[in-house]
Amino acid sequence: MEKIWLKSYSAGVPENIDLGALRSIAQYFADAATQYADRDAFISGSTGVAMTYSQLDKLSEQVAAYFQSELKLAQGARVALMMPNLLQYPVCLFGLLRAGYVVVNVNPMYTARELEHQLKDSGAEAMVIVDVFAHTLAKVISNTAVKHVVVTGLADMMPWPKRVLGNFLVRKVKKMVPAYSLPGSITYRGMLARGAVAAFKPVDIQPNDLAFLQYTGGTTGVSKGAMLTHLNILANAKQGQVWFDPFLDKNADLISITAIPLYHIFALGTCLGFVGMGGTNVLVADPRNIPAFVKVLSRYRFVSLPAVNTLFNGLVNNPDFAKVNFSQLRVAIGGGAAVQRAVAERWQHITHTPLIEGYGLTECSPTVTVNPLDLKAFNGSIGLPVPSTEVSIRNADGKELPVGEAGELCVRGPQVMQGYWQRPLETAAVMTADGFLRTGDVAVMDDNGFLKLVDRLKDIILVSGFNVYPNEIEDVVMMHPGVLEVAAVGKPNQHSGESVMIYVVKKTTDLTKEDLIRHCRENLTAYKMPREIEFMAELPKSNVGKILRRELRERA
């Protein structure tokens, strides 16, 4: 496809990035730690505790040394991280990547069933987990390959004695830590102490070595691990940097508010981009508490706030949000789900900065397109392909379509994954012969190269930027003995973009909606929970017996 989008690039944004300069995330971080040693790398939004690049360098080396010397894990071993946006996350993240391990990010709100699947599928041998969620791991660890566990408390990065008091309040007063048993586990502070006296041996990490198994549903079915290399991640970070660079004041503090969970690829990619520029990521562990979140925002002159539509909507509807100082705000990007025009217009009215939309997916590390930062107002498009990225709009037969015609959006670039972990057939199904990733999304390009999403080929439900897979919901509901048939679809929701709705055919007449809610709550994390249930005598089906979800979506 002709790169007509290049004519719409902002001044100073290059057509391509230099891939030859990208080596490993370990080297990328080492360069940042050397150049920006005394700058704050991360700040805890809730406690105000800051960690400089130099401190992060030291602590992450202790993590690397512990896993190398104490646990003797081989390079390439998979290690799971299960925690919200705490300072412990970047310490563990960079430590593991420096030692050549593959990071498996896990949603801390997962149920035991969901966690077991991801640990078994990835083959993770070790795990770092917050004590609040350790009881979930305790239920399934014997069914997995996990042999080493590090448990951290929420307050473990606070200075003494606040650390002791904070963890005491969480465990004894607020009783946020359910009882668990993980024999042989070690504390986070114990890991750092042992790592401090062990020797870290730098390893040879190549650009195409795996860095992450980032789990996603892909196009269909059960959650799969997208294999993302050091080059994939660094290329996408660089693409973001050159897109932002012409609009950033190099003499000002580059502060980004990281409110999306770092285990989500959107936040992870943005965070790493700012690390390369010596920026500061302010970590927000619970952005759903909007009043507390606004207080965090009021303490910083931030230049960037990436988020999902539901979060932007929550902010603009808070009366104190308008009092925040937006003088340094340059980048407000909505991703993960469609940005609603009403939200974008209200955002710009309050902040005087356009809310622009981007598009990406886990398989692309994640960014594919984004709108120019000199956009004057929200335009309803997902923007332009980022540098070194090609897109192609194709029909069902794989033939490229001309500008103005809608078809499946296909992507080729250095950020595209290597495939799905141990799933060659699923990988082959989404990759074209000429190396493009089939996204499963229908898009149309205009004469200036701007893309607009038209529809989804997938049945994925987008809840506040998180993918929810109908097959998984249906599998869980079908586990209930009173259910004969079920179909899950997305229903438009003004708060979360979409919510899950299920249509159920009863097997037993005494089945109630309350029965199903209780059953689902035991097996699904909160954002996957059905918000509405409708009983039907029968589900619509095709002539071969396939349930017609499209008809049910229209009904919803």
CATH class placement of the largest domain: Alpha Beta
Report the average pLDDT across residues: 94
CATH homologous superfamily name of the largest domain?
ANL, N-terminal domain
Main pleated sheet: 7 strands, mixed
Radius of gyration: 23 Å
Amino- and carboxy-terminal Cα gap: 37 Å
As residue ranges, the low-confidence spans are: none
Beta strand count: 24
Strand content: 15-25%
Q: Under the CATH scheme, which architecture of the largest domain would be assigned?
A: 3-Layer(aba) Sandwich
- The amount of helix comes to 25-40%
- Structural class by helix and strand composition: alpha/beta
Question: What does the overall shape look like?
Answer: globular
Q: Find the CATH topology of the largest domain.
A: Rossmann fold
What's a quick, concise take on this entry?
This protein is an alpha/beta fold and 556 residues long. The chain contains 16 helices and 24 strands.
Written account of the structure:
The chain is α/β, with parallel strands linked by helices and 556 residues long. It has two domains: 21-351, ANL, N-terminal domain (Rossmann fold), CATH 3.40.50; 461-555, GMP Synthetase, Chain A, domain 3. The protein contains 16 helices and 24 strands. A seven-stranded mixed β-sheet has the order 7-6-5-3-4-8-9, with helices on both faces. Strands 2-1-11-10 form a four-stranded mixed β-sheet. Strand 6 (148-152), helix 6 (162-173) and strand 7 form a beta-alpha-beta unit. Helix 2 crosses helix 3, helix 4 packs across helix 5 (134-140) and helix 8 (230-244) packs across helix 9 (265-276). The protein is globular. The two termini are 37 Å apart. The mean pLDDT is 94.
